[in-house]
Amino acid sequence: MLNYQRYERVPVVDMPEREWPNKQIQEAPVWCSVDLRDGNQALVEPMVVEEKVEMFNYLVKMGFKEIEVGFPAASQIEYDFLRQLVERDLIPDDVIIQVLTQCREPLIERTFESIQGIKKVIFHIYNSTSTLQRDVVFHMDRDGVTKIATDGVAMVQKYMKDYDGELTLEYSPESFTGTELDYALDICNAVQRAWGPTPEKKMILNLPSTVEMTTPNVFADRIEWMSKRLENRESIVLSVHPHNDRGTGVASAELALLAGAERIEGTLFGNGERTGNVDIMTIAYNMFSQGIDPKLDIHDVKEIVDVYERCTKMTIDPRHPYAGKLVFTAFSGSHQDAINKGVHALQERHMRKWQVPYLPIDPSDIGREYEPVVRINSQSGKGGVAFVMDTYFGFRLPRGMHKEFADIIQVIAERQGEVAPDQVMEEFRRNYLERKEPYHFRKCKITDFEQAETLRRSRSLPTPTTESKSSLRASETARSTRCSAVLRRSSASRSRSWITTSTR
């Protein structure tokens, strides 16, 4: 029997005055990529320096203005990478480098050594504040843990005197989701009082769901509760750093934006410890699908996937939102039929806004193709087969023919599985275009009407009949042709034929 009684519910927030449920996301947050730190440390094979350089350059290309590059005091590779960025002059003037360190003096000193020569830096310090870790890891009370944080601020202030760049402090009460709200507020206020931010020179307070422990609405309640009670709120950039342990990292981040968060730390496609960090790509594409500018260059998801997979040696799941190979593909017959009709309606009505059933966005807007949208297997129906014939090969089948041809493909799909478009076309050719019964194309006679008229006049032939005059008047071109086919009816076959021959 499943022993669910071993676990306790995480307390919810008693806040009837909550306002976030009545709000909507209006604009993109400040994005901070932690691919090179949080994402990298979770890889089976962490990136080497050149792979990190490639990833950094691509993040810059995408438009990230804040990039956490690592924990330079904890690893020589991290330190060397950061120095490579400086020495090779790879950091644009409008990009802020973020570095992470614990509140320990040797680590803070080493981190300051690593950032020399960088114009703008976010100096990110953290310590764990959760009830559990105070008890079993640090064996400290609240005051002791708060002192770790405020001592960290004092150390940053000490060493920044020798730093000639622009420095912004960021503080994270690690394991915020496991920390009592009143204590989370106390330690954040203590840190910001020690630092002294102003509306002109703000600091970042980052509230991480280091382990996702609640439903997204509870996380949103916690963010709104903090946002409304923080001292000197106008001098604070409120940031969140969601993880995905419960599979709701994206929802938690989106609701946090409604609750007052202004900044999101995450990774491309959600790489990170355990089940990963929040997936910035999904949040950005969600905004895009709602008509909101995500403020990132995400128009070519295939290229983003290529760089991500090459640098991380991870693969994107076929069902990953927006990026997976199958997310714009329909196998279900009813879905295929609806997509087919939706695409035709979009084209025929010249609609400006995208509205196609089962496709929340136009795949081509993010570098995907229309072709894979409909794929044929045993679950497909007549609409899917008709869509493939129209989209791939330009054959718009008569409606009565849809089921007849779909039944032929259905038999093949049940026998072998997915049927590729080329095989669909081959079956169409074999069953219709190359059929010799019930009708068989034998010969064609072509008449040049202009030449025939000239010849008639030269020979003083009889005046053309009213019918032939009408035919000539109907022609809008100087020359036209008529094809007359001699067809032979097969007495052996009585099946219907849906092939329609039209000639010009």
What is the residue-mean pLDDT, rounded to a whole number? 87
Query: Which parts are unreliable, with pLDDT below 50 for 5 consecutive residues or more?
Result: 468-504
Shape descriptor: elongated
C-alpha Rg, in Å? 33 Å
Helix share, percent? 40-55%
Strand fraction band?
Answer: 5-15%
User: Class of the largest domain, according to the CATH hierarchy?
Assistant: Alpha Beta
Strands, total number: 10
Q: End-to-end span in angstroms?
A: 75 Å
What structural class do helix, strand and pairing data support? alpha/beta
CATH topology of the largest domain: TIM Barrel
Q: What's the CATH architecture of the largest domain?
A: Alpha-Beta Barrel
Strand order, largest beta sheet: 1-2-3-4-5-6-7-8
Give the tally of structural domains: 3
Number of helices: 17
| SSE sequence, one letter per element | EHHEHEHEHHEHEHEHEHHHHHHEHHE
Largest sheet, described in full? Answer: 8 strands, parallel, barrel
CATH homology superfamily of the largest domain: Aldolase class I
Description of the structure:
The protein is an alpha/beta fold and 504 residues long. It has 3 domains: 12-312, Alpha-Beta Barrel (TIM Barrel); 333-433, no CATH class; 448-481, no CATH class. It is built from 17 helices and 10 strands. The protein has an 8-stranded parallel beta barrel with strand order 1-2-3-4-5-6-7-8, surrounded by 8 helices. α4 links the parallel β3 (96-102) and β4. α6 (142-159) runs parallel beside α7, α12 (333-349) crosses α13 (382-393) and α13 (382-393) crosses α14. The longest helix has 18 residues, at 142-159.
